[in-house]
Amino acid sequence: MSFQLQQLAKLITERSGLDVKVVGDGALSIEKISTIDKANSNHITFLANAKYKKHLVDCSAGAVILAESELDAWQGAALVMSNPYVGFALVAQILDDTPQQSMNIHPSAVVSESAKIAENCSIAANAVIEADAIIEQGVQIGAGCFVGQGTIVKENSRVWPNTTIYHGVDIGKNCIIHANSVIGADGFGYAPQSIDGDQHWIKIPQLGGVTIGDNTEIGSSTTIDRGAIDNTVIGQGVIIDNQIQIGHNVVIGDYTAIAAGTMIAGSTKIGRNVTIGGVCAISGHLTIVDKTFITGRSFIMKDIKEAGIYSSGMPATTNKEWRNNTARYRKLTELFDRVKKLENK
């Protein structure tokens, strides 16, 4: 698969509306996108960070995606645009060679007679589609997947192998759900009851579902619990990384991004355009406003009512410094009491 440089520019503009200027040979054939140090004459690379500008001197790429301000550092063909990183993303989409499933139902798939399956969709080997499920046009269901009763997977969404989607889940258009994820499992709902001095846990059936908006991507081995009564809701254009836990009745606003390993407890409401770093823990029943940025390893225990950057993770240091700081931290209460006494005097 190859494209002329001028074809790539035209496709970028058609997909995004962005202005792209072709510099040099517009008929140059591009077969692959590559890094600056490994590109050859049939490859296109990109410069999105000025610190890599020095590597253009030895770059063998056929063309480079870069900003107008960096054009002086490159003598060859180029696609010039205001945001080269977005240009890289769009060219990568155009040159994407991820295999597509054949549009048919594999003989080993088990499909309920009451399920509604569009003609041009794909259901791979050993998948199970339960009663009254709806699989719309262009959907790809991977090998070994389970789609529960009454669940809807809308147009052009792709579910990678061994994913489990429980009953009563609504997945929007153009979504991607990566392998081994679980959508719609029971939330962690139990009522405590004391019996003979022991605390027993009485299960609360989780009667809600999960709603996922259009153009959302969910990473592998991520779990999104169903709601206790109302639905758990994931907005449109949300990107969720691998191995994330989202509790019951969580609401995540449009275009929010969540990095790997983060845990969000039940009934928390996260706004639009929020960015959450990796390995964060967010307590339940909180509200986080739009356009908040939470850095990695943060522990959020109360509402965030004002947009900004929030952190609580402790950066790594030498073991000696960490041991000294830990010893001092243990004396913090004693030191506080001493200061209080001095203030009172």
Automatic annotation (TrEMBL):
Keywords: Acyltransferase, Lipid A biosynthesis, Lipid biosynthesis, Lipid metabolism, Repeat, Transferase. Residues 28-93 form the UDP-3-O-[3-hydroxymyristoyl] glucosamine N-acyltransferase non-repeat region domain. It catalyses: a UDP-3-O-[(3R)-3-hydroxyacyl]-alpha-D-glucosamine + a (3R)-hydroxyacyl-[ACP] = a UDP-2-N,3-O-bis[(3R)-3-hydroxyacyl]-alpha-D-glucosamine + holo-[ACP] + H(+). The keyword Acyltransferase applies. The keyword Lipid metabolism applies. The active site is at residue 248. It is an enzyme of class 2 (transferase). Belongs to the transferase hexapeptide repeat family. LpxD subfamily. HAMAP family: LpxD (MF_00523). Catalyzes the N-acylation of UDP-3-O-acylglucosamine using 3-hydroxyacyl-ACP as the acyl donor. Is involved in the biosynthesis of lipid A, a phosphorylated glycolipid that anchors the lipopolysaccharide to the outer membrane of the cell. Homotrimer. This is UDP-3-O-acylglucosamine N-acyltransferase. The lineage of its organism: Bacteria, Pseudomonadati, Pseudomonadota, Gammaproteobacteria, Alteromonadales.
